[in-house]
Amino acid sequence: MSPAAIANGTTNGAKETNGINGINGINGVNEQSHQLHINPATTQPNAEVPVSTQDDVDRAVAAARAAFKPWAKVSVEERGQKLRDYADAIERYTNEFAKLLTSEQGKPLAQSMQEIGMATTWLRAFSTMKLPEEIVEDSEDRQVINRYTPLGVACGIVPWNYPILLAMGKVAPALYTGNTIIIKPSPYTPYCDLKLVELGMHIFPPGVLQALSGEEDLGPMFTTHPDIDKIAFTGSSATGKKVMAASAPTLKRVTLELGGNDPAIICDDVDMEKIIPKLAIVSFLCCSQICMMIKRLYVHSSIYDQFVAAFCAHVKKNFKVGPGTNPENFIGPVQNSMQYAKVKDMYSQIAEQGWTPALGGDMPDETTSSRGYFFTPTVIDNPPEDSCIVTEEPFGPILPILKWEHDDEVIARANDSKMGLGASVWSTDLERATAMAKQLEAGTVWVNSHFEVAPGIPFGGHKWSGIGTEWGVNGLKAYCNSQSLWLKKRL
Question: If DSSP codes are grouped into helix, strand and coil, which group holds residue 254?
Fold first, then answer.
């Protein structure tokens, strides 16, 4: 594969504008193709990609099933080395993947480079993790061992906001534990995942790692397929419920990493000059299209006015909006027309509901020549707690800041959500902040930071934000069956 092939979303042997499915170690061009996919900064079409059919899915699953047992017999050390080889191969094409990611997702090139770096870090970290075999009993009569065995064929359903990291975050634990996996990219961002799998097919045996692109009907072909053992899904809570329901008749194992509505609680003793730059980044990174971004910012009433003024001034000065190819821009476009319409509706609520913008608030100018899906970062000043900007996840660059008075009150407000992905508390009093953090109902809670993640740390949500965890040893176990092995020492 050439660097140009990655940067342009093309593949040797295919027509110049085509993306390629990867089935059983072979690049396959489906005769059906379409141009749903656009560059969100320009709304101009990107390259065509295949539209997979049920036959494509059946062939890929059959290849994965045939490859499973031989791959499971490969030593864990060799499987780990393959992951490291894969990371090395991706790293060699970092610049090309970054350009391709920015053209399909919209995020600035610097953020694309960061995502690729995280993906290779995840691959290497998983390649050396230890899945424990625990001796739970050892007596004169018997030994009992708790061990883990691979499930079989997995399918990773990947979203459009972090298509590289979230694909590799499923590939790494699945392959390392001896499973095979098929990646289904989002219909909005298929290019990087198809190219990643094409690159991986040079490293892994046929059928071990595959990818299929397609329309919205492709996901159900996987979730209902009788010969798939595991679905790892990242996406909205509404779709996650459908995935779980579709997986139930065949009792597939599922891991669901779903939406969030993360609160951040700012106490009255913080150093605003130090924390505001950090808070701004973890509120508006990737155009706020990250499930673990801050979505509700609760600021103590005694510092509220000063904080809001300083926060808005920082965002206005430092966060330029525009195409991700311009290194001066921090906020790129919303990724697709569907999400653009949802965010646009949220902006329209400012006037309709009488919210007060402390920053921004303007509807996008759709007469400009760029025609991209851009919004000005917006801060809403202390909206009602029951307003949709507080209760719903905008997944766009609009943030409510709210006042609070007492610790118990703000904890109750922060927890008053069906979502429970992440949350944070910010204070110079670590004891107080820790006590507050331990009462927050979320899968990940930070003190004096937010959106810190690492490959060795389990990641998952409470309530409607998910089921199960990814990453870390817990993430490895999610691709395994637990087995109790009883060894009788005497007949």
Answer: strand
Residue 16 has pLDDT above 50, yes or no: no
Whether 14 shows a pLDDT value over 50: the answer reads no
Place of tokens 């990940």: 444
Task: Give me the pLDDT at residue 8, please.
Answer: 57
The pLDDT score that the predictor gives to residue 375 is 96
Catalytic member of 192, 267, 291, 480: 291
Taking 70 as the threshold, does the pLDDT of residue 369 lie above it? Answer: no
Q: Which residue has the tokens 């900007």?
A: 389
Apex 62 CA angle, 15 and 226, nearest 5: 120
pLDDT band per the 50, 70, 90 thresholds, residue 413: very high
* Dist CA 76 CA 69 (whole Å): 14
Q: Is residue 257 annotated as part of the catalytic site, yes or no?
A: yes
Average pLDDT along the chain: 94
- Tell me the C-alpha to C-alpha distance, in Å, between residue 170 and each of 36, 392, 489: 25, 27, 39
Known catalytic membership, residue 291: yes
pLDDT of residue 6: 62
Q: Residue 244, Cβ neighbours under 10 Å: how many? A: 16
Q: Which residue has the tokens 């090309």?
A: 96
226 CB burial (10 A radius; 0-12, 13-18, 19+): exposed
Helices 94-105 and 109-126 cross at an angle (nearest 10°) of 120
Q: Is the pLDDT of residue 153 over 80?
A: yes
Whole-number pLDDT of residue 30:
57
Cα torsion 185, 463, 223, 178: sign: positive
In a 10 Å sphere around its CB, with 0-12 CB exposed, 13-18 middle and 19+ buried, how is residue 489 labelled? exposed
Q: Is the pLDDT of residue 270 over 80?
A: yes
Q: Which pTM value belongs to this model?
A: 0.94
Phi-psi region of 306 (alpha: psi -120 to 50; beta: other; left: phi over 0): alpha
Annotated catalytic residue within 198, 257, 393, 470: 257
Query: What does the block give as tokens for 347?
Result: 């902006």
Of 71, 60, 66, 475, nearest to 253 (Cα)? 475
Query: Pick from 361, 358, 329, 330: which is nearest to 344 by CA?
Result: 361
Distance CA 479, CA 121 (A): 20
Burial label, 117 (beta-carbon count in 10 A; 0-12, 13-18, 19+) = middle
